[in-house]
Write a structure and sequence with these properties.
This protein has 105 residues and is an alpha+beta fold. The protein is 22% helix and 10% strand.
């Protein structure tokens, strides 16, 4: 992960800019979720966590979206800095722009 052993020499502002651009490219900008962790893999891929934006006191449709691989909420995503899914992701379907291709867990 970025910042640990083997981290590249990019500056923190450059990494923050890449992260913001990837979040926007993945269509996650402006969402109110409980996620928000961003880490970089040794291969330069980004790991992002997204919450489901559900309420804790009731079960609602927002909570159920996390069960679908066609939704980006309630997931750990592994994407390129350009926001594309990676062929080594477990739900890859051949389309880097597809939501399920971005899902890591």
């Amino acid at each position: 992960m970025y910042g640990g052993r083997g981290a590249d020499a990019r500056s923190l502002p450059a990494v923050a800019t890449e992260a913001r651009q990837a979040i926007e490219a993945a269509g996650l900008a402006g969402t109110a979720t409980g996620g928000g962790a961003i880490r970089f893999g040794a291969d330069g891929s980004m790991f992002l966590t997204t919450g489901d934006a559900a309420h804790f006191d009731t079960v609602n449709d927002n909570a159920l979206r996390a069960q679908s691989t066609s939704s980006l909420v309630g997931k750990m995503l592994r994407i390129t800095t350009g926001g594309a899914g990676l062929p080594t992701n477990p739900f890859w379907n051949g389309d880097a722009a597809a939501s399920r291709s971005k899902v890591w867990a």
